[in-house]
Amino acid sequence: MAPYRTALVGGPVVAGLAVALSIGVSGAAAAEGTLHFYNWSDYIGEDTIPAFEAETGIDVTYDVFDSNEVLEAKLLAGSTGYDLVVPTGIFMERQVRAGVFQPLDKDKIPNLANLNPQLMDYLAQLDPGNDHAVIYMWGTTGLGMNVDMVTERLGADAPLDSYEILFNPEYLSKLADCGVHVLDAPTELIPIALHYLDLDPNSESRDDFAAVEQLIGPIRPHITKFHSSEYVNALANGDICLALGWSGDVLQAADRAAEADNGVVVDYVIPKEGTLMWFDTLAVPADAPNPDAAHAMINYLLEPEVAATISNYVAYASANDAAKPFLDDEILNDPRIYPPDDVLGRLFPDRASSQTADRMRTRLWNRFKTGI
């Protein structure tokens, strides 16, 4: 059996990860050979892959990426060589339309029964019949901050629970010296900005896009970097003081800072205005060399104890209801991971947009990043 190995593809090397339990995999006996798995960086348990290999006899080549755009470019180009990939819902929706995924053989995934039906109903709006994808993890996009640095510069009365500290240049300019990172993801920032302006986050109006550009243009000089993974270590090390990032990533940064005992205190905030909620999914490319192994891995990842051990490490919410008894209390009871009903009511899902809106968003984003 080949050793577990992680290759960097579009992002930083996966760091230390948590223990996943080895449990029987239905249908695994029918699968063999090698599984080529393409996942987000820092998004699986330390022993998940080795335990799956030991349980099934399937070798795993595991590569990582750090943006949906990187994954999508490979999928649309064809012949990726991957058997299993992890697109975010908004990208998965349009990729399904483009025919890049094969339908799932649900008879090979009995653990689908463990998934929350309400969340899967939402996913069915993106993938009718849930024919091509299942939920891996879900979370929110919000603010990661070095509490001490931000408070020192903005004062104790600053609205740390609001997107105002990001979108108001009066506040953000005071944080430029300690470092500000923003996800390199227009599908994250632009809907959040629309919502902040009390506009439809899925708007395709030119006037609404113009309003977003007026909002975010003045903050560009105060943003240190656009990147979708480097902010994790940057927050943990105290190299930056604010990031627009993903919930679990920021909470991982908080854990790393605490473990390092470096005096850095990192917090994740779901702003009071509300924010984006998203789903990452498991899908099998249409040209997957080994779809049987992909189905075996999907079913394995949906085992309750396996799903729980991954969630316990990455600090993202699992859609697996059967996993809840195995979740650490600090994960299950953390409102930043599993938001209470009043916060859930202020969240909004992302949706795929038309090609016209995609072009407007791309042009806006390029102007924003380049400062033109």
Automatic annotation (TrEMBL):
Gene Ontology biological process: polyamine transport
Q: What is its main location?
A: periplasm
User: In which domain of life is the source organism classified?
Assistant: Bacteria
Q: Which range is the signal sequence, renumbered to this chain?
A: 1-31
Q: Which GO terms describe its cellular component?
A: periplasmic space
In its keyword annotation, does this UniProt entry include Transport? yes
Gene Ontology MF terms? polyamine binding
Q: What does this protein do?
A: Required for the activity of the bacterial periplasmic transport system of putrescine.
Sequence similarity: Belongs to the bacterial solute-binding protein PotD/PotF family.
Name of this protein: Putrescine-binding periplasmic protein
**Organism per entry:** Roseospira visakhapatnamensis
